[in-house]
Amino acid sequence: MKNRIYAAFVVGYILAFGGCGTKISDVNPTAGLIGHYKDSDPLKIGSKPTPPAKQSTPALVVGPIVVPEDQNKRFNTRVRTQITEEMVGKGSRNAVLPIKHPPLVGSSGVNAPPIPPQNGDWIVLMSPGGAALTVWALAQGNWIWGYTLIDSIGFGGARVWRLRFFDNDEVMIENGETRTCLNAYKNGLIHMACNTKNRYQRFKLIPMSNESFQLKNVGFDQCVQAPIGDIFGDFHRVTSIFLTKCATGSNLDQQWYVAPPTFLVRPLYRRDIDK
């Protein structure tokens, strides 16, 4: 009799309390938009950013189509050689993108309605090494990279972002070209349809004493990193963007600054000046 009572107690304890401790959380960085909620790589793109193709003149590309809703979508990859009304808004004195449509929200029922209109200004997010967070491949699910402004002259709004603020001091970061949002994925960042319920699209800004800040992802509890080797020697290269443990000491490669929106940048010098 005692054994039966003890067994019943153990089973009851496991059902009452064990479930809370063993429950598998949603590890899918797309918040269930694609794949099973336990799948940590639902897009099957691996854990590390795949370097962009080498281009004599960096230009936007479509990239691999990994999200079904992009299958029949037409993408504009043209190089921007001048400021247009599309970029700055008709009759606007300031470089502000017009809001022609709400943020891109996936057609899946798991997605929330468009983000509330608590928006910041259009900005550039730049590391101390000169790498600006940039969309290179326009299709959803492609990796985010760091390009210097001179090496991404024709990218326009692909390197321009705005912060979407929430009452708990978290932000989502929306791209000016694609209207998609930064999305933590494995060891890096991709861009996906904005989804207010996706904690992998939520970030916290941790202020630093030098006016910079760390970008801490809520889903992974890690910070955005742009590795810095030689600040001058690495100037003309594409920088990989990673997620890593937030550093409290030496963290130059995790610092980010806000700069004005660079819809078009004219180079101050020619690369062949010494030739």
SS-based structural class?
Answer: mainly beta
Strand content: 15-25%
Q: How many separate helices?
A: 2
In N-to-C order, the SSE pattern is HHEEEEEEEEEEEEE
Strand order of the largest sheet: 12-10-9-8-5-4-1-13
CATH class category name: Mainly Beta
Q: Outline, from the CA principal axes?
A: globular
Low-confidence stretches: 8-24, 89-112
CATH topological fold name:
Trefoil (Acidic Fibroblast Growth Factor, subunit A)
Radius of gyration: 21 Å
Range of helix content = under 10%
Overall tally of structural domains: 1
| Number of strand elements | 13
Q: Could you describe the largest sheet, including whether it forms a barrel?
A: 8 strands, antiparallel
CATH architecture descriptor name: Trefoil
Let me know the average pLDDT: 79
Distance between the termini: 95 Å
Characterise the protein shown here.
It is a single chain. By secondary structure, this protein is mainly beta. The chain has a single domain, classed as Trefoil (Acidic Fibroblast Growth Factor, subunit A) (Trefoil). It is built from 2 helices and 13 strands; from the N terminus they run H-H-E-E-E-E-E-E-E-E-E-E-E-E-E. The strands form 3 sheets. The chain has an 8-stranded antiparallel β-sheet, with no helix packed on it. A hairpin with a 5-residue loop joins strand 8 and strand 9. The longest helix is centred in the first third of the chain and has 21 residues. About 15% of the residues have low confidence.
Please supply descriptive tags for the structure shown above.
single chain, 9% helix, 8-stranded antiparallel beta sheet, mainly beta, 3-stranded antiparallel beta sheet, Trefoil (Acidic Fibroblast Growth Factor, subunit A), globular, 275 residues
